[in-house]
Amino acid sequence: MANTRLPSAGFSITIRIAVPADATSIGRLTTAAGEAGAIVTALDVVDSDPAHVIVDLTCDTADAGHADQVVDALTALDGVDVRKVSDRTFLLHLGGKIEVTPKVALRTRDELSRAYTPGVARVCMAIAENPADARRLTIKRNTVAVVSDGTAVLGLGNLGPAASLPVMEGKAALFKRFGGVDAWPVVLDTQDTDEIVAIVKAIAPAYGGINLEDIAAPRCFEIEARLREALDIPVFHDDQHGTAICVLAALTNALRVVGKQLADVRVVVSGAGAAGTAIMKLLLRQGVGDIIAYDRQGALHRGLPDLNPAWQWLAENTNKENYSGDLAGAVRGADVFIGVSAPNLLTGEDVAQMAKDSIVFALANPDPEVDPREARKYAAVVATGRSDQPNQINNVLAFPGVFRGMLDAHAEEFTEEMALAAARAIADVVGEEKINPTVIVPSVFDSRVAPAVAAAVRAAAQNPAATPAPAADPGPADLPEIAANASATP
């Protein structure tokens, strides 16, 4: 009954069980759960009497079906009475994950008169006379809108605005926890590009930045471009730029581990949608040797018909040898594989055909493009997006610090110089003396990360000319503006 998929905390359950009060009962529970493929993380005795012991068994499973299998395995044991099964993820989300808390006390008439009427009228008039004072005298100085239409929720597709809300709440909680930024979910019941742009423009006065989230390509590219043009606050699409920053940081240290230079390596990117396109643009700016972009239509190459403008540009400016075969063939001899696409596209045998000291970033969640256990048999460095595997490439390494830095600098836009500075800061937090095949990025809980990223972004915002130029920069005119016809990641 062993499960072949990877259990994770995302499918953690707690099972309340009554067992006979003998020396073997609890051991039989943990053994049965382990044989069913679960990972037992806690076992607590909650009650007992002369005949029975009541225990809470907590374990990670791979999915809802696997959780049912584990419960069935425990129920089948002699003398075991399963009383209740609790899904710990759903329990965490009950009532939502964030709240508004006043920063000022409202205990007396004196305090009320200053925080609200009549005193607040003076502050309103000051802002009316000098609108720039809104950054100083209101929440605008530290508040970000997390905007989504629910069309690309995680890897689940178009679930709509209500179903996207748990993700946006989580994003807001991460902003506060790691960057000290007050963020609020803004989920929109429209998928019309013009309406989304108009709504965000209308609410922008209350915010110091806009974080676009889980909006499907190609619309996400146009929405971001139009909002950047229209607003005087930074607009940042985390699915694109946050991912690209973290991948570049991780790749910087992975290349240090294997002793290769970015200019000498060939990279295969599976997924030429929002994240993949941003990753490839940033790598090209840094002077990568070559990239093969792979998506639903196969390897993007010159001569491939019916390509949208973004894919056409990739076909013309990557894939030097004009490879046109399948993904397994593309990775043969490649130094780096980066997956931001779909699960189970490659096998361990495919990884074995890569270049010596290869690097694999299989970032599809929850199931990567290749089983990391298989990839590690052949690749020198393996990373995933999973929190239960070494080298988790997680956007939380980037976006809290990026926005912290932009807000502190009163930045009016997000720039590529900020992205490059953030990536260098994340990579350098680890320290060259401490990197190894299982440590190429810092922990998301490393307290040094967000301040380092914020400082780097703030410096890039305040003095962009001082930001070191990337190697082999092709120049702004040579890189495409991402048009509305780019593809979604598969």
TrEMBL record:
Domain Malic enzyme N-terminal: 95-228
Gene Ontology MF annotations: oxidoreductase activity
First-tier enzyme category under EC: oxidoreductase
Cross-referenced SUPFAM superfamilies: Aminoacid dehydrogenase-like, N-terminal domain, NAD(P)-binding Rossmann-fold domains
Low complexity: compositionally biased ranges: 463-476
Cross-referenced Gene3D superfamilies: Malic enzyme, N-terminal domain, NAD(P)-binding Rossmann-like Domain
Location of the Malic enzyme NAD-binding domain: 240-462
Known EC number: 1.1.1.38
Keywords of the record: Oxidoreductase
Region of interest: Disordered: 463-490
PANTHER family in the cross-refs: NADP-DEPENDENT MALIC ENZYME
Name used for this protein in its record: Malate dehydrogenase (Oxaloacetate-decarboxylating)
